[in-house]
Task: inverse folding
């Protein structure tokens, strides 16, 4: 088993309805009915060995500040099914295994967002790049034993069986 820790190469927050981007900041939540933030974290592709598979992928972020009211806010990552409830300054995790692309040839984004107007007036700010609390995508890889091709095994078994049959037939004649 091997664990990769991948840090985003870029983070940006986007104000919905006007598509204004704030670079190097992770803001998520709603300021008003017309202004809400979602955040994109861009990761470089990573390489895994042919005999490895992804067991689990977890996005870890540190909430460093809460703007507005201190209500709990459900924050999703790429999918409504992937969520964490953020209520105070602390570390939070999202299990994002299903959000990792099957082809790792290009960089990819994880998008963090809220659903619904109930999150109005509560913006959560996460650490963007500080060394000790910056976002990290932790990927657990499992190594599988190389599986020899069944064709090769079948050919070897057929060859051995054929040789034994010929030897056996010669003895009886």
Result:
């Amino acid at each position: 088993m091997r664990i990769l820790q991948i840090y985003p190469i870029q983070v940006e927050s986007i104000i919905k309805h006007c598509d204004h981007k704030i670079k190097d900041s992770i803001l998520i939540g709603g300021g008003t009915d017309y202004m809400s933030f979602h955040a994109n974290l861009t990761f470089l592709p990573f390489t895994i060995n042919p005999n490895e598979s992804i067991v689990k992928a977890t996005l870890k972020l540190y909430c460093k500040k809460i703007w507005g009211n201190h209500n709990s806010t459900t924050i999703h990552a790429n999918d409504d099914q992937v969520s964490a409830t953020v209520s105070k300054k602390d570390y939070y995790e999202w299990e994002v295994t299903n959000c990792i692309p099957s082809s790792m040839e290009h960089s990819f984004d994880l998008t963090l967002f809220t659903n619904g107007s109930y999150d109005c007036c509560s913006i959560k700010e996460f650490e963007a790049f500080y060394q000790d609390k910056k976002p990290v995508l932790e990927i657990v890889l499992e190594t599988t034993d190389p599986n020899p091709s069944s064709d090769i095994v079948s050919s070897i078994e057929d060859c051995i069986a054929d040789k034994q049959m010929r030897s056996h037939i010669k003895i009886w004649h």
About this structure: Residues 150-172 form the longest helix (23 residues). The radius of gyration is 26 Å. The mean pLDDT is 84.
